[in-house]
Design brief:
395 residues, alpha+beta, 2 domains, six-stranded mixed barrel, 13 helices, 57% helix, elongated
């Protein structure tokens, strides 16, 4: 242990004695480690943002999309989906047909395009996070059954058309048809024209008449529990296949499945990016090997003197190997610090919280040490094999 500590002290003395060269030697390691930390941090942050966004939709959410088939004589309608809901109370607790599109909203002299969504009253149970209101109420069973021209508006419409005042009780025209505002959504983003706050919701029954839609092609279900999501998806696929007589022409997806797929994709992408960044670590390792080779040549006489006064081959090997490890290890530490700082700055610029993973920090530092050992062993062995008599003769 004492020899290792002595070799460490000699390594630090050598590194500090050549600060400029040592810094340049560590540069490749610093860049490589920092790149890995930055890329995985941003990738992790992006994954978290998307996963959180999907999770807000509700991890019990199941979406059924029906694709129109020209030669098909069978179709799935609202009554069929209602039948599945009633026959499977242990799997699903709510169902809502849904329509979406774009309409022109107008109030007074202000008008602009907005996104239109149409749901059943049960949508607030299926996606409670997406149906939070700042004022008023959500769609009722009466609104749906009576095809009322009632609507709920987003906060952008509230700001732009009503000057930020509560719009409940006011009217708005959608594609020239007057609707009564019964509720206003909570602000979810920055309330710009292109944000999710520029939206309006109406009963799906009203939308079918309003948009002249003969049938619904998209349905939302809420599983009774998260554990039943997979079973509900399987049951829905079996039910629709039986109704259509084919297992094509429709898709059944769950948010939980989408989150798992996304995590897997982002994990693979992050690993690939980290692998590309790790190439610079190898380049840095080659730089360490070259500098250590030069160092051995410059310190040949010192090696001869140490051997002449009793230093063993293993002592010389240990000295130069530890010097290589210290160089790469310091480069790894500096790279981690720079990587965390830069990742945080980039995240602040793009308004996203980066996620620096502890295991990736540990892996980066460990890899930098391994690089030091791998690329430092050859120069260290060369130094250890020097003949002391020939070493003392060198100038």
């Amino acid at each position: 242990m004492g020899k290792i500590f002595q070799s460490f002290k000699m390594s630090m003395k050598s590194i500090l004695g050549n600060k400029g060269r040592s810094a340049l030697t560590m540069l490749g390691i610093i860049i490589g480690v920092a790149s890995v930390i930055i890329l995985t941090g941003i990738g992790g942050g992006a994954t978290k943002v998307i996963s959180d966004s999907m999770a807000e939709m509700g991890t019990k959410l199941i979406t059924v999309n029906m694709m129109f088939q020209r030669n098909s004589t069978r179709s799935i309608g609202i009554e069929d989906m209602q039948e599945f809901l009633e026959d499977n109370p242990d799997l699903v607790s709510a169902m809502s047909p849904t329509l979406s599109g774009n309409v022109t909203a107008k109030s007074g002299r202000t008008n602009f395009n907005t996104s239109l969504s149409a749901y059943d009253s049960s949508y607030s149970e299926i996606q409670p996070n997406a149906a939070k209101l700042s004022s008023g109420r959500f769609l009722s069973d009466s609104d749906v059954s009576n095809r009322r021209y009632n609507c709920i508006v987003g906060s952008y419409i509230k700001e732009e058309m009503f000057g930020g005042l509560d719009p409940v009780g006011e009217t708005i025209k959608l594609n020239g048809r007057q609707f009564n505002i019964i509720g206003c959504y909570e602000e979810t983003s920055n309330s710009t024209e292109n944000s999710s706050d520029n939206k309006v919701t109406i009963p799906y029954t009203t939308a079918m008449r309003f948009l002249k839609q003969a049938r619904m092609n998209t349905f939302y279900f809420a599983a009774t529990t998260e554990d039943e999501v997979e079973n509900a998806v399987t049951a829905l696929e079996s039910f629709i296949t039986k109704k259509l007589g084919t297992n094509t022409g429709f898709m059944v997806n769950s948010v939980a499945e989408m989150i798992d797929t996304l995590d897997e994709m982002m994990g693979t992408m992050t690993t690939m990016l980290a692998g590309i960044a790790a190439i610079s670590l190898i380049v840095g390792g080659i730089g360490i090997m070259n500098i250590m080779t030069v160092t051995v040549s410059e310190r040949t006489r010192e090696i001869g003197i140490r051997k002449a006064i009793g230093a063993r081959t293993t002592d010389i090997l240990l000295q130069f190997l530890i010097e290589s490890i210290v160089l790469s290890g310091l480069g790894g530490i500096v790279g981690i610090i720079f990587g965390i700082i830069i990742a945080a700055v980039v995240g602040n610029i793009i308004s996203m919280q980066t996620v620096v993973q502890t295991d990736m920090v540990i892996l980066s530092f460990t890899f930098s040490i391994v690089i030091g050992v791998f690329f430092g062993i050859a120069p260290a062995r060369r130094a250890a094999k020097l003949n002391p008599i020939e070493a003392l003769r060198s100038e």
